[in-house]
Write a structure and sequence with these properties.
GO biological process, one term: protein homooligomerization
Shape: elongated
Structural class: alpha/beta
Oligomer: single chain
Organism: Helopsaltes ochotensis
Protein name: KCD14 protein
Largest sheet: 4 strands, mixed
Pfam families: BTB_2, KCTD_C
Helix content: 25-40%
Order of helices and strands: EEHHEHHHHHEHEHEE
Number of domains: 2
Strand content: 15-25%
Strand order of the largest sheet: 5-4-7-6
InterPro entries: BTB/POZ_dom, KCTD7/14_C, SKP1/BTB/POZ_sf, T1-type_BTB
Radius of gyration: 26 Å
């Protein structure tokens, strides 16, 4: 007994060109279900999202025949709101920005980059950190040291030396040599040529390590004999708490 085409599930109809589809489209985005129109999805022809629904089908379908996009579904509603009404989201800005980049919706990307959150991150903070030598590498080094010292411990610590100028770096050299002789690992940040202060950099370090899921705190490193200046001017201890 043959099954008429009108009773076939949607998932069996997507083998042809997408222009044969109904103008109403059902989507499964990371487990979140959405219903919209083909014209809404193709509103910006140069976007990756429009490309997904142009020409031959490029997406798989779920068991109910809905087109499946393997992305966080929670934030897709903000993408749809923008496509439907040009409404720029005011919530979850960072996450929506990631999705706008993925779907390559250029007008939304540009408007989000003008928001205080994205502007501050891209133009201010990241531009500052780009002037701090080996910043990303030092973050990873701190994490490796902390993990290596975490065996059978609730906390592990990492000593950080932060110097803003070449003069500060020279002042710290004896202390760094002393710590090295004591076989204490020290991660050195700086110097840099930018306005932000040492406390600003410490905030950035804490922010970026916490963004990786670690629970940390920072405190001045207590001076030991042999230091010729106040150690808390340049030396800090980052505490990683594991449980």
């Amino acid at each position: 007994m043959s099954i008429s085409s009108e009773h076939k599930p949607l998932g069996k109809q997507v083998t042809g060109s997408l222009h044969m589809l109904s103008p109403i489209v059902e989507l499964n985005v990371g487990g979140e279900m959405y219903t919209t129109t083909l014209s809404t999805l193709k509103k910006h022809p140069g976007s990756k999202l429009a490309e997904m629904f142009t020409g031959q089908p490029k997406l798989r379908t779920d068991s109910e025949g809905r087109f499946f996009i393997d992305r966080p579904g929670t934030y897709f509603k903000y993408i749809l709101e923008y496509l439907r009404s040009n409404q720029v989201p005011t919530q979850c800005i960072q996450d929506v920005y990631k999705e706008a980049l993925f779907y390559d919706i250029e007008p939304l990307i540009k408007q989000l980059e003008d928001s205080p959150q994205i502007f501050g991150e891209l133009v201010a903070r990241r531009q500052f950190l780009a002037r701090v030598p080996n910043y990303s590498e030092n973050i990873e080094l701190m994490i490796r040291i902390a993990r290596a010292e975490a065996v059978a411990s609730r906390q592990s610590s990492v000593i950080v030396c932060v110097v803003r100028t070449e003069e500060d770096a020279a002042r710290c050299q004896d202390a760094l040599s002393s710590l090295d002789m004591e076989k204490k690992s020290v991660v050195k940040f700086g110097p840099w040529k930018a306005v932000p202060s040492i406390s600003d950099l410490l905030d950035c370090i804490q922010m970026d390590i916490e963004a990786k899921g670690y629970k940390i705190s920072v405190q001045p490193h207590v001076a030991e004999k042999g230091f010729r200046f106040k150690s808390h001017d340049f030396f800090y201890k980052f505490l990683f708490t594991w449980w």
